[in-house]
Protein backbone atom coordinates (compact mmCIF):
# COMPACT_ATOMS: atom_id res chain seq x y z
CA UNK A 1 0.00 0.00 0.00
CA UNK A 2 2.97 2.28 -0.57
CA UNK A 3 2.14 5.75 -1.90
CA UNK A 4 -1.45 5.60 -0.64
CA UNK A 5 -1.41 9.35 -0.17
CA UNK A 6 -0.37 9.94 -3.78
CA UNK A 7 -3.08 7.60 -5.07
CA UNK A 8 -5.78 9.48 -3.17
CA UNK A 9 -4.59 12.89 -4.31
CA UNK A 10 -4.25 11.77 -7.92
CA UNK A 11 -7.81 10.41 -7.73
CA UNK A 12 -9.01 13.85 -6.68
CA UNK A 13 -7.38 15.24 -9.82
CA UNK A 14 -8.85 12.48 -12.01
CA UNK A 15 -12.32 11.32 -10.99
CA UNK A 16 -11.94 8.11 -13.00
CA UNK A 17 -9.40 6.95 -10.41
CA UNK A 18 -11.71 7.45 -7.43
CA UNK A 19 -12.91 3.84 -7.38
CA UNK A 20 -9.32 2.58 -7.53
CA UNK A 21 -8.32 4.81 -4.62
CA UNK A 22 -11.33 3.69 -2.56
CA UNK A 23 -10.36 0.05 -3.14
CA UNK A 24 -6.81 0.83 -1.99
CA UNK A 25 -8.19 2.46 1.15
CA UNK A 26 -10.36 -0.59 1.83
CA UNK A 27 -7.37 -2.93 1.51
CA UNK A 28 -5.32 -0.67 3.76
CA UNK A 29 -8.06 -0.71 6.39
CA UNK A 30 -8.12 -4.51 6.32
CA UNK A 31 -4.37 -4.58 6.87
CA UNK A 32 -4.58 -2.08 9.74
CA UNK A 33 -7.20 -4.21 11.49
CA UNK A 34 -5.01 -7.30 11.12
CA UNK A 35 -2.03 -5.38 12.50
CA UNK A 36 -4.13 -4.10 15.40
CA UNK A 37 -4.83 -7.69 16.47
CA UNK A 38 -1.24 -8.85 15.89
CA UNK A 39 0.52 -9.58 19.22
CA UNK A 40 3.85 -8.50 17.75
CA UNK A 41 2.79 -4.85 18.42
CA UNK A 42 2.66 -3.19 21.84
CA UNK A 43 -0.53 -1.56 23.09
CA UNK A 44 0.70 1.99 22.48
CA UNK A 45 1.35 1.30 18.80
CA UNK A 46 -1.96 -0.54 18.45
CA UNK A 47 -3.71 2.68 19.51
CA UNK A 48 -1.85 4.57 16.77
CA UNK A 49 -2.87 1.93 14.23
CA UNK A 50 -6.52 2.19 15.27
CA UNK A 51 -6.36 5.99 15.01
CA UNK A 52 -5.13 5.75 11.40
CA UNK A 53 -7.85 3.21 10.64
CA UNK A 54 -10.44 5.76 11.79
CA UNK A 55 -8.75 8.49 9.72
CA UNK A 56 -8.97 6.30 6.62
CA UNK A 57 -12.61 5.58 7.36
CA UNK A 58 -13.38 9.31 7.44
CA UNK A 59 -11.39 9.95 4.26
CA UNK A 60 -13.27 7.19 2.43
CA UNK A 61 -16.63 8.63 3.51
CA UNK A 62 -15.58 12.09 2.37
CA UNK A 63 -14.44 10.73 -1.01
CA UNK A 64 -17.79 9.00 -1.47
CA UNK A 65 -19.63 12.24 -0.63
CA UNK A 66 -17.49 14.16 -3.10
CA UNK A 67 -18.12 11.59 -5.81
CA UNK A 68 -21.88 11.70 -5.22
CA UNK A 69 -22.00 15.50 -5.28
CA UNK A 70 -19.90 15.57 -8.41
CA UNK A 71 -22.07 13.02 -10.21
CA UNK A 72 -25.19 15.06 -9.43
CA UNK A 73 -23.60 18.31 -10.61
CA UNK A 74 -23.57 20.01 -7.22
CA UNK A 75 -20.39 21.72 -8.34
CA UNK A 76 -19.93 24.19 -5.50
CA UNK A 77 -20.58 21.62 -2.76
CA UNK A 78 -18.37 19.09 -4.55
CA UNK A 79 -15.50 21.57 -4.76
CA UNK A 80 -15.83 22.40 -1.07
CA UNK A 81 -15.77 18.69 -0.16
CA UNK A 82 -12.75 18.19 -2.40
CA UNK A 83 -10.88 21.12 -0.83
CA UNK A 84 -11.54 19.74 2.66
CA UNK A 85 -10.36 16.30 1.54
CA UNK A 86 -7.13 17.63 0.07
CA UNK A 87 -6.41 19.57 3.25
CA UNK A 88 -7.06 16.51 5.42
CA UNK A 89 -4.81 14.25 3.34
CA UNK A 90 -2.01 16.78 2.95
CA UNK A 91 -2.01 17.81 6.61
CA UNK A 92 -1.52 14.34 8.08
CA UNK A 93 -4.59 12.24 7.41
CA UNK A 94 -2.32 9.67 5.76
CA UNK A 95 0.58 8.33 7.81
CA UNK A 96 4.21 8.64 6.73
CA UNK A 97 5.25 6.11 9.33
CA UNK A 98 6.63 2.64 8.76
CA UNK A 99 7.12 -0.53 10.77
CA UNK A 100 10.48 -2.08 11.65
CA UNK A 101 10.86 -5.69 12.84
CA UNK A 102 13.18 -6.26 15.82
CA UNK A 103 14.48 -9.72 16.67
CA UNK A 104 15.32 -10.54 20.28
CA UNK A 105 19.08 -10.27 20.85
CA UNK A 106 19.56 -13.67 22.40
CA UNK A 107 21.45 -16.90 21.74
CA UNK A 108 18.04 -18.58 21.61
CA UNK A 109 16.88 -16.41 18.70
CA UNK A 110 16.19 -18.64 15.71
CA UNK A 111 17.58 -18.01 12.22
CA UNK A 112 14.15 -17.10 10.86
CA UNK A 113 13.82 -14.28 13.39
CA UNK A 114 17.38 -13.13 12.75
CA UNK A 115 16.70 -12.96 9.01
CA UNK A 116 13.72 -10.69 9.70
CA UNK A 117 15.63 -8.32 11.99
CA UNK A 118 15.54 -4.79 10.60
CA UNK A 119 12.95 -5.56 7.93
CA UNK A 120 10.80 -2.53 7.10
CA UNK A 121 7.09 -2.59 6.23
CA UNK A 122 4.91 0.14 4.78
CA UNK A 123 2.45 1.47 7.37
CA UNK A 124 -0.55 0.28 5.35
CA UNK A 125 0.79 -3.22 4.61
CA UNK A 126 0.01 -6.29 6.69
CA UNK A 127 2.78 -7.26 9.10
CA UNK A 128 3.29 -11.03 9.59
CA UNK A 129 2.74 -12.67 12.93
CA UNK A 130 5.59 -14.15 14.93
CA UNK A 131 6.92 -17.20 13.06
CA UNK A 132 6.75 -19.60 16.03
CA UNK A 133 5.20 -19.77 19.54
CA UNK A 134 8.45 -19.04 21.41
CA UNK A 135 9.30 -16.00 19.32
CA UNK A 136 9.84 -12.76 21.24
CA UNK A 137 10.27 -10.48 18.23
CA UNK A 138 8.60 -7.08 18.26
CA UNK A 139 7.59 -4.56 15.61
CA UNK A 140 7.64 -0.84 16.29
CA UNK A 141 6.19 2.14 14.47
CA UNK A 142 8.92 4.53 13.37
CA UNK A 143 7.84 8.14 13.11
CA UNK A 144 8.89 9.92 9.94
CA UNK A 145 8.59 13.56 8.99
CA UNK A 146 6.98 14.52 5.73
CA UNK A 147 7.16 18.24 5.08
CA UNK A 148 10.77 18.40 3.92
CA UNK A 149 10.85 15.12 2.04
CA UNK A 150 12.56 15.18 -1.37
CA UNK A 151 12.16 11.45 -2.07
CA UNK A 152 9.17 11.76 -4.35
CA UNK A 153 6.49 12.05 -1.67
CA UNK A 154 3.51 14.24 -2.50
CA UNK A 155 3.62 17.45 -0.45
CA UNK A 156 1.28 20.43 -0.33
CA UNK A 157 3.60 22.55 -2.48
CA UNK A 158 4.12 20.09 -5.33
CA UNK A 159 0.49 18.95 -5.23
CA UNK A 160 -0.73 22.51 -5.71
CA UNK A 161 1.63 22.92 -8.66
CA UNK A 162 0.38 19.63 -10.13
CA UNK A 163 3.84 18.14 -9.97
CA UNK A 164 5.30 15.16 -8.18
CA UNK A 165 9.08 15.52 -7.77
CA UNK A 166 11.18 12.70 -9.20
CA UNK A 167 12.71 10.31 -6.70
CA UNK A 168 16.24 10.97 -7.94
CA UNK A 169 16.25 14.46 -9.49
CA UNK A 170 19.23 15.08 -11.73
CA UNK A 171 20.28 18.10 -13.71
CA UNK A 172 20.08 17.76 -17.48
CA UNK A 173 23.21 18.54 -19.54
CA UNK A 174 22.87 21.72 -21.59
CA UNK A 175 25.43 20.69 -24.20
CA UNK A 176 26.98 17.56 -25.55
CA UNK A 177 29.91 16.45 -23.47
CA UNK A 178 31.67 13.17 -22.71
CA UNK A 179 29.39 11.06 -20.59
CA UNK A 180 30.56 8.54 -18.00
CA UNK A 181 30.03 4.88 -18.71
CA UNK A 182 26.40 4.00 -17.97
CA UNK A 183 25.71 2.27 -14.70
CA UNK A 184 24.73 -1.39 -14.90
CA UNK A 185 21.07 -1.82 -15.68
CA UNK A 186 19.03 -2.39 -12.53
CA UNK A 187 22.08 -2.45 -10.23
CA UNK A 188 19.91 -3.35 -7.24
CA UNK A 189 18.41 -6.39 -8.96
CA UNK A 190 19.38 -9.67 -7.31
CA UNK A 191 21.50 -12.21 -9.13
CA UNK A 192 19.25 -14.48 -11.19
CA UNK A 193 17.87 -17.40 -9.24
CA UNK A 194 17.53 -20.95 -10.50
CA UNK A 195 14.39 -22.88 -11.38
CA UNK A 196 13.21 -25.22 -8.61
CA UNK A 197 12.79 -28.05 -11.14
CA UNK A 198 12.51 -28.64 -14.88
CA UNK A 199 9.19 -29.29 -16.54
CA UNK A 200 6.52 -27.70 -18.72
CA UNK A 201 4.68 -24.68 -17.33
CA UNK A 202 1.01 -25.64 -16.99
CA UNK A 203 -0.14 -22.62 -14.96
CA UNK A 204 1.01 -19.06 -15.57
CA UNK A 205 1.36 -16.20 -13.09
CA UNK A 206 -1.63 -13.84 -13.23
CA UNK A 207 -3.88 -16.41 -14.88
CA UNK A 208 -7.56 -15.94 -14.06
CA UNK A 209 -8.94 -19.02 -12.29
CA UNK A 210 -12.60 -19.68 -11.47
CA UNK A 211 -12.32 -18.17 -7.97
CA UNK A 212 -9.02 -16.28 -7.93
CA UNK A 213 -6.04 -14.97 -9.87
CA UNK A 214 -3.13 -17.43 -9.94
CA UNK A 215 -0.33 -15.97 -7.80
CA UNK A 216 2.52 -18.19 -9.00
CA UNK A 217 3.46 -20.72 -11.66
CA UNK A 218 2.72 -24.45 -11.92
CA UNK A 219 5.42 -26.78 -13.23
CA UNK A 220 4.23 -30.25 -14.30
CA UNK A 221 6.57 -32.92 -12.91
CA UNK A 222 6.09 -36.53 -11.76
CA UNK A 223 5.50 -37.23 -8.07
CA UNK A 224 8.85 -37.55 -6.31
CA UNK A 225 10.79 -35.07 -8.47
CA UNK A 226 13.54 -33.37 -6.40
CA UNK A 227 12.74 -29.71 -5.69
CA UNK A 228 15.62 -27.25 -5.32
CA UNK A 229 15.80 -23.99 -3.38
CA UNK A 230 15.80 -21.14 -5.88
CA UNK A 231 18.29 -19.10 -3.80
CA UNK A 232 20.14 -19.02 -0.50
CA UNK A 233 17.84 -18.41 2.44
CA UNK A 234 16.28 -19.56 5.69
CA UNK A 235 13.39 -22.00 6.01
CA UNK A 236 10.40 -20.13 7.40
CA UNK A 237 8.06 -23.14 7.43
CA UNK A 238 7.98 -26.77 6.35
CA UNK A 239 4.85 -28.82 6.92
CA UNK A 240 1.28 -29.51 5.86
CA UNK A 241 -2.32 -28.38 6.33
CA UNK A 242 -2.03 -25.13 4.41
CA UNK A 243 -5.34 -23.23 4.34
CA UNK A 244 -4.65 -21.99 0.80
CA UNK A 245 -4.64 -25.54 -0.54
CA UNK A 246 -0.89 -26.05 -0.95
CA UNK A 247 -1.08 -29.39 0.88
CA UNK A 248 2.44 -30.13 2.07
CA UNK A 249 4.62 -27.11 1.46
CA UNK A 250 7.85 -25.27 2.26
CA UNK A 251 8.46 -21.53 2.65
CA UNK A 252 11.94 -20.01 2.42
CA UNK A 253 12.87 -16.38 3.15
CA UNK A 254 15.66 -14.69 1.20
CA UNK A 255 17.29 -11.35 2.04
CA UNK A 256 17.78 -9.24 -1.11
CA UNK A 257 19.35 -5.78 -0.69
CA UNK A 258 18.12 -5.69 2.91
CA UNK A 259 14.56 -6.67 1.97
CA UNK A 260 12.79 -9.99 2.50
CA UNK A 261 11.67 -12.01 -0.52
CA UNK A 262 9.84 -15.30 0.05
CA UNK A 263 9.61 -18.43 -2.08
CA UNK A 264 6.75 -20.89 -1.46
CA UNK A 265 6.72 -24.47 -2.79
CA UNK A 266 3.37 -26.26 -2.75
CA UNK A 267 1.68 -29.66 -3.35
CA UNK A 268 4.76 -31.57 -2.16
CA UNK A 269 4.87 -35.29 -1.41
CA UNK A 270 7.58 -34.84 1.25
CA UNK A 271 10.12 -32.35 2.59
CA UNK A 272 13.52 -32.75 4.22
CA UNK A 273 14.16 -29.34 5.81
CA UNK A 274 12.92 -27.65 8.98
CA UNK A 275 12.07 -24.13 10.16
CA UNK A 276 15.16 -22.06 10.92
CA UNK A 277 17.48 -24.15 8.73
CA UNK A 278 19.93 -22.27 6.50
CA UNK A 279 19.53 -23.29 2.85
CA UNK A 280 21.88 -22.96 -0.12
CA UNK A 281 20.78 -22.28 -3.68
CA UNK A 282 20.22 -25.58 -5.50
CA UNK A 283 19.87 -27.60 -2.29
CA UNK A 284 17.19 -30.32 -2.46
CA UNK A 285 14.48 -29.24 -0.03
CA UNK A 286 11.57 -31.50 -0.96
CA UNK A 287 9.97 -33.81 -3.50
CA UNK A 288 7.07 -32.83 -5.71
CA UNK A 289 3.65 -34.34 -5.23
CA UNK A 290 -0.09 -33.97 -5.69
CA UNK A 291 -1.23 -32.91 -2.20
CA UNK A 292 -3.74 -30.20 -1.31
CA UNK A 293 -6.02 -28.66 -3.92
CA UNK A 294 -4.30 -30.18 -6.92
CA UNK A 295 -5.62 -31.65 -10.16
CA UNK A 296 -2.48 -33.55 -11.06
CA UNK A 297 1.18 -33.94 -10.07
CA UNK A 298 2.98 -30.60 -10.23
CA UNK A 299 4.94 -28.01 -8.26
CA UNK A 300 3.32 -24.68 -7.47
CA UNK A 301 5.81 -21.91 -6.65
CA UNK A 302 4.93 -18.40 -5.50
CA UNK A 303 7.44 -15.57 -5.05
CA UNK A 304 6.43 -12.82 -2.62
CA UNK A 305 8.14 -9.55 -1.85
CA UNK A 306 7.88 -9.51 1.91
CA UNK A 307 7.45 -12.38 4.31
CA UNK A 308 4.65 -14.96 4.17
CA UNK A 309 1.45 -13.21 3.02
CA UNK A 310 3.55 -10.55 1.29
CA UNK A 311 2.83 -9.27 -2.21
CA UNK A 312 3.08 -11.98 -4.90
CA UNK A 313 5.14 -11.04 -7.95
CA UNK A 314 5.86 -12.71 -11.28
CA UNK A 315 8.59 -15.32 -10.58
CA UNK A 316 10.18 -14.28 -13.88
CA UNK A 317 11.43 -11.20 -12.02
CA UNK A 318 13.85 -13.50 -10.20
CA UNK A 319 14.34 -16.57 -12.41
CA UNK A 320 13.67 -17.53 -16.03
CA UNK A 321 11.07 -20.17 -16.81
From TrEMBL:
<dbReference type="InterPro" id="IPR011055">
    <property type="entry name" value="Dup_hybrid_motif"/>
</dbReference>
<feature type="coiled-coil region">
    <location>
        <begin position="1"/>
        <end position="35"/>
    </location>
</feature>
<feature type="compositionally biased region" description="Low complexity">
    <location>
        <begin position="169"/>
        <end position="178"/>
    </location>
</feature>
<dbReference type="InterPro" id="IPR050570">
    <property type="entry name" value="Cell_wall_metabolism_enzyme"/>
</dbReference>
<dbReference type="InterPro" id="IPR016047">
    <property type="entry name" value="M23ase_b-sheet_dom"/>
</dbReference>
<protein>
    <submittedName>
        <fullName>Peptidoglycan DD-metalloendopeptidase family protein</fullName>
    </submittedName>
</protein>
<feature type="compositionally biased region" description="Polar residues">
    <location>
        <begin position="148"/>
        <end position="163"/>
    </location>
</feature>
<feature type="region of interest" description="Disordered">
    <location>
        <begin position="144"/>
        <end position="205"/>
    </location>
</feature>
<feature type="domain" description="M23ase beta-sheet core">
    <location>
        <begin position="213"/>
        <end position="315"/>
    </location>
</feature>
<dbReference type="GO" id="GO:0004222">
    <property type="term" value="F:metalloendopeptidase activity"/>
</dbReference>
<dbReference type="Pfam" id="PF01551">
    <property type="entry name" value="Peptidase_M23"/>
</dbReference>
<keyword id="KW-0175">Coiled coil</keyword>
Amino acid sequence: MAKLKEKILQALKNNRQLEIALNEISKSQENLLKNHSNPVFNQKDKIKILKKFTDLQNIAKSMQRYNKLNENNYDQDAQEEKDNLETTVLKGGISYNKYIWHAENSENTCDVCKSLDGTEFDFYDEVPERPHPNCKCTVEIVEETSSNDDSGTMTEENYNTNKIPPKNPTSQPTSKSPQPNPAPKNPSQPQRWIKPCNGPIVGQYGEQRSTHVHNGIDIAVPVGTPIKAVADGTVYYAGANDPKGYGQYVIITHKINGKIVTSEYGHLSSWNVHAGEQIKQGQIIAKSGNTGHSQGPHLHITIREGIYKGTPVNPNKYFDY
